[in-house]
Amino acid sequence: MTDTGPDFITVGEGAAARRIAVRVREGFGPTVVWLGGFRSDMTATKAAALDAWAAQQRRALVRFDYAGHGASGGTFADCTISSWLEDAQAVLARYIEEPPILVGSSMGGWIACLVARARAASGQKTAGLVLIAPALDFTEDLIWSRLDEAARASLVRDGILQRPSDYAPEPDPITRALIEDGRRNRLLEHPFDPACPVHILQGMRDPDVPYSHALKTVDRLPAEGTVLTLIADGDHRLSRPQDIARLVTAVAGIA
Fold it and tell me: Is the pTM of this model over 0.85?
């Protein structure tokens, strides 16, 4: 099977329209869909490794870049959780016919859970979720709550805060719109049911999404069908060979 990407689809209308880059690997299902993290893209280590596994196993796989990420159009600072969720839903609507396996890394874990919940509400099935250091509600719990009063005041006043990043030379532009929209998409305030099996992979040396956050996520999910794998020496990236092997095993287990 060959990789037929990148394709481009247009999401949104008028001034909000943006071109979303998608790479599709044909194969047998259920289709694995990669949902990347905050400011990551579909060529990153875990996404590429999962695609290589799919090629070897002749498995169908779809990966894409959210607006403002990678090869897609749009401006990062103009985007929110809701707009990235819209990107993901548009990709699934265009390329997915059977219940997919959603693999979400960090922010992608939040998006994956929102997608699965919405699919369940509309009568659509999801085959399963594999979540890597899932950063559900991160705009509130892992950004806003960690800002001091001066930074919060600056963000509210100016509408944007340049936050230093450990993963890129330039800072992350955190907008007031992102924080406010994140509050409208929170999942961890109440129990929620994605209506499918969930396997979470979480490093215990993760400084960005601490494993206590994964425990909180598990507490909000149905006990039946939810598995949590804690990796004692794992960091946030979980991109070492042994971490990739765990990821592939988790995806294959649901598939």
Answer: yes
5-17, pLDDT tens digit by residue? 599 999 999 999 9
Q: Which CA distances in Å does 117 have to 111, 120, 126?
A: 10, 5, 9
Tell me the pLDDT tens digit for each residue of 46-65: 999 999 999 999 999 999 99
Domains in the chain, ordered, with CATH? 7-137+187-254 (3.40.50.1820)
Q: Please, are residues 127 and 103 in contact by the beta-carbon 8 Å criterion? A: no
Q: 26: which residues sit within 8 A by CB, 6+ positions away? A: 1, 2, 4, 60
**Counting runs of H as helices and runs of E as strands, what totals does the chain give?**
8, 10
Q: How many CA atoms lie within 13 A of 59 on its CB side?
A: 22
Closest CA to 37 of 49, 45, 29, 26: 45
Token output for 36: 């990347």
Do residues 105 and 125 touch, judged by C-beta distance below 8 A? no
Backbone CA torsion sign across 73, 79, 83, 88: positive
